[in-house]
Write a structure and sequence with these properties.
Distance between the termini: 24 Å
Structural class: alpha+beta
Low-confidence stretches: none
Order of helices and strands: HHEEHHHEEEE
Mean pLDDT: 85
Shape: extended
Largest sheet: 2 strands, antiparallel
Number of helices: 5
Number of strands: 6
Amino acid sequence: EEAGPDAAPAPAGAGRRSSTEIMRRFDSGAKGMQVEQRGYWLNSQFLLGEQWLWWNPRTATTEQVPRDANRVQVTMNALWPASRTLIARAMSRAMHFEVPPTGADDATIQAAHVAESVINSISDHHDWEILREDALWATWKGGTSLLALEWDSTLGDPITPPPGYEGPPVHQGDTVETVLSVADFGVEPGVRDATKGSWWCKQVAIPPD
């Protein structure tokens, strides 16, 4: 994916990337975030009560510490209830959106009110409260997360095609918001501010044909 509005403009034809280039980018981004990804998987296991673990750098996975029959290995999962309390506090207030008017005239104030109504409608329709909870859990376990905002032209109400049109159905389109944990995306290596990088990638599980 190309990055946000603060990123440098992409050259002509940059929107089309080969699968090899995409994999190269994702691998380079993932390598730059190995420490964060390791912490995410370890913390995820800790929250599930699996606390006798170690990180295998060869397989990039968590593995159980070998059990010792002569040693008591006690597990007291205090992280899970404490984490639930923190997330519940963060979710206790409902999301509230404000669009400050850019002027004092009636038309500008009315436009700001309309914008607030639109945002509130979208947040209800797209379940932003659920997305917020997912983002909080992903950030709590991995230290950071990403909210991907993409456009899907197949969503929305169908548009009546012009006479003689024989192509696929055309829809109004709509945005798709997806919360990604630090283990599911990679950003351009070396950038100090990921929002200003020239690209980011996410991994998607696709079933075989």
